Amino acid sequence: MINLFIVLFGVSMLYMASSSRIMAQINMLKLQGIILCLITLIAHHHANIAGIAFLLLETFVVKAVMIPWFLEKVSKKNNIKRDNNPQFPNFYTLVISTFILFSGFLIANIHSDYMKNISNLYFGISISTIITSFLFIATKKRLLTHVIGFAMLENGIFLLSLSVAKEMPWLVNIGVLLDVFIAVFILGLLIGEIGSIYENPGVCHLCNLKDSESEEDE
Amino acid sequence: MSKFFALDSLNLLFMIILVIVTGAVIVYQGKQDWKYNTIFTLFFLSMTGAIMSSHLGLTWVFVEATTLTSAYLIMQHKTQNSLEATWKYVFLCSIGISLAFVGIILLLIGCDGVNSLAYTDLYTHADKINPFWLKLSFIFILIGFGTKVGLAPVHSWLPDAHAEAPSPVSAMLSATLLNSAFLVILRFYKLMVLAGASHTAKVLLLAMGFLSIFITAVYVYKIANYKRMLAYSSIENMGIIAIGTALGGAAVFAAAMHLVAHSLIKASFFLTSGNVLKIYKTKEVAEVKGIIEQDKFTGWLWVICAMLIVAIPPSPIFISEFIMIKQMIIEHHYILCFLFILLLTMVMFGIMRAVVKTAFGNTNLTEKVKLGFNKYLPQVVLLTAVIGFGLYCPKVIYDLIAGAALWM
Prior knowledge:
The complex is a heterodimer of chains A (218) and B (408). Chain A is globular. Chain A is mainly alpha-helical and 218 residues long. Chain A has one domain (2-217). The longest helix of chain A has 29 residues, at 49-77. Chain A is 72% helix and 0% strand. Chain B has one domain (9-407). The longest helix of chain B has 31 residues, at 80-110. The mean pLDDT of chain B is 93. Classes of the chains: A mainly alpha (218), B mainly alpha (408). Chains A and B meet through helix 6, helix 7 and helix 8 of A and helix 3, helix 4 and helix 7 of B.
């Protein structure tokens, strides 16, 4: 059952990488949040009530509801619907991400002493998600899609942390969650601020600061 | 809470620097509105947390918190450029710090039999950690926290953020924030040494250190913006500290000494650049002429800061770099030594050329701008302390630095 969810998580990542519609990407983030919630509930069924409540808060409330809701709000407020003309055609991104996911499955099938402490499938898929989210950030042009890529990266890292049996102290977990949430929040607010200067906030506008500026003026 | 926070001779040094520099910046910036003060305090507290925490996971939380709290301080003026710089800063540092978290998880995978990420537990059981996962983890930690430190090649946010932030904030970023992130690398480096994987760590630190100096030498050679020049100088100095740490022996003491001197000098330099910006209203080197004629105090502070930062005696930076060069010769790293001296000379030339161009000659402004007493006092105090430290090192300070070096 868990394996099915993990594979579904990998597929959602492929869909995100190939789609140019912002809403589709945000919906996939919601799906990833729900999948992570289900995985933690099934895998940690013997944990105490406080532990389960925190995991629910972390995965369902923050990853599946609050972050996508906030990104949706930013998208509507700034009227950003699509990430057209990415640096790289979406089809190629899909092909490369498929290759990365395939490599993830290969890693999951390595049986060596090094891998004895971890759940292989979690590890393989999470590493491929992390790499794909970098590809996602590098190939898209909109600032909002970069934030979506960042949220996807955090989901991948969360899955990676599930691959290790050991848990962090609650203080650290809450801190990590708070940091990630605030980072997305601040980046969302920044998109609004940058949007008030440029009509279509994209990375192509963010190239004023460079060292050769004044030499060109001369 | 004591299992999460602790004071030892290493973070004591970092705390002292943080308190001194923050004090100087508060005097310099004078009265501010409540919103700025609140966020500035949160920024200070997050750095204190990052320095004092004795748990790797918690340190991560605080280092990421420093990014988030300082974002508002950088974009305070909300200009096109400051927004761009803030975006790059928050986004790149968050991505970098996320990679550092991957490093922490990889360390957890390798920690068979070690149940906590408290530094003392990790050090005690260093021999039980799987070397493969430890080395892999170090790469991620170095790239992750190295982004925050501004080590090349993951430094690209640093010149933008330092140049666009208000000068007191730039001083805080350069003199305290980079240190608090570097402390994590030092803590992890010690774990690598105890686990017997120091060779990998040394090679990586040396590579990033030399690349940082190289990048600075290339960009500073013909720099157009003086605040960017100071930012690149921070990259260079953090690179030098990384090199000193990796060289080992007496160079570790030199690295600790360099860290103290760089923080105090760079804070003064950034604060003085704030005066220059206030008088000339431009950051372009070509548009600033005759600072000494325009404002004697600012002009001489500008020149003295530059001389101290490029390691002209009696700067303590001269002593630390000299010890590092000596260590390279003792260990027969002649090529590294040659490269080190060459790159430092190039950086020295670049910085001094810009400073001489702007400080001397006739001013290009017609009216005088009067600055308050608090715009000079912090720099005078910091620079006096640095010069005194370069001429004579009291036993208390020597013990403090030697104590920190023992932990590195």
